[in-house]
Specification:
single chain; 182 residues; UDP N-Acetylglucosamine Acyltransferase, domain 1; seven-stranded mixed beta sheet; 20 strands; globular; acyltransferase; Sugar O-acetyltransferase
Length: 182
Amino acid sequence: MSEKTKMLAGELYTADDPELTADAARTAAWIARYNGMADASAADRDQLLREAIGDVGEQVTVRAPFYCDYGYNIYLGTGAFLNFGCVVLDVVRVDIGAGTQIGPGVQILTADHPRDPALRARRLEFGRPVRIGANVWIGGGALILPGVTIGDDAIVGAGSVVTRDVAVGETVVGNPARAARR
């Protein structure tokens, strides 16, 4: 089994595998082009976005600068909006639902590392998918950790660190993010 196949399956893999480093290099070149087109037309940015991202719905906005590992594991629903400076570490699938709004400087992380120091010393890592539902609002500077699912219509407060799933319609704030009092 290739390292890329292991990565996509969420198994332990070595990120400095030649196939993965070639993919990452292609993505880095794409990121440079995409981030250099901040003043281009919406149609031109959309066309370029579709070159690297796994799936892009209609009327999606991703403001530059934007950063990701591979791009092909990111799925953006219709009307999704990612503000300036978002980072998506997409070693496995990241789903962002229709109409979801993501504030500036948000980080969505699927990459994780073994807790066993001997495995970490071998430079192994793995991924856990992140799923963000439809019509979610994620405030600026929030951090979404590996394996988290955020339900439809949820709100994540600015600067929150989301370490566990967020229920449909729930508002969470803080570090670690907890349900907000009403």
